[in-house]
Amino acid sequence: MKIGEGAVRLTEFSCFRDWLGYAFGLMLASLAVFMLLTRFFNQGQPVDELKVVAPPPMNTMEQLLAVQNAISQVEQLIQDGNIGLLKVRALLLSVFPQASDKFAAVLLGMGLVLAILPLKYVVLLGFLEVSTRYSPARKESSERCARRMREWWFSIPAAPVVLDREKDDKKKK
Fold it and tell me: What would the pLDDT profile of 4-27 be if each residue is shown by its tens digit?
């Protein structure tokens, strides 16, 4: 094996060597041509002004309420992120075997698909799926699948919880 053959083989097996690179280059070239044509044909014409409506003046109390609302929204986003991380941790550590088995089966299926099909076909299938997801023929099944995935995700507890009640010394009469 000569020096540089490894790099050549790597580029031969690259999934994007056929047409995707040309498509990306064509897209960039088209964008440049569009910019040049726009500049050429709009020379000397004023650009339309943007009209921005200023927010109404707020007193100190309204400003504090707006800041408090923004902080509570950020706290909610952080809490949702933490719950998501705990759920992924629970799946990976098989805390809940039924959900972890389904997740492992999906990962195995995805791994087999990636091992059997070339990556460029997987990318094309993904693009086709995203492009046709809300078409009339697939809208109902896509929504049903999304609803099932949402229900499955919400059925996974973030962490195992045990409710420990203190035992009362008093006897109930």
Answer: 555 445 445 444 456 656 666 777
Torsion of CA 138, 142, 145, 146, to 10 degrees: 180
Average pLDDT over residues 108-117: 85
Confidence of residue 115 (pLDDT cuts 50, 70, 90): confident
**Residue 173, SS3?**
coil
**Cβ-contact 44, 119 below 8 angstroms:** no
**CB atoms inside a 10 Å sphere around CB 3:** 6
Whole-structure pTM value: 0.56
Q: How far is CA 45 from the centre of its chain?
A: 41
Q: Using an 8 Å Cβ cutoff, are 66 and 58 in contact?
A: yes
Q: Note whether 153 and 88 are within 8 A (CB).
A: no
Q: Which residues contact 109 (CB under 8 A, 6 or more apart)?
A: none
Contact (Cβ atoms closer than 8 angstroms) between residue 157 and residue 90:
yes
On whether the CB atoms of residues 118 and 15 are closer than 8 A, the answer is: yes
Asked if the model's pLDDT at residue 39 lies above 70, the reply is yes
DSSP annotation string for 81-142: HHHHHHHHHHHHTTSSHHHHHHHHHHHHHHHHHHHHS-HHHHHHHHHHHHHHTTSTTTHHHH
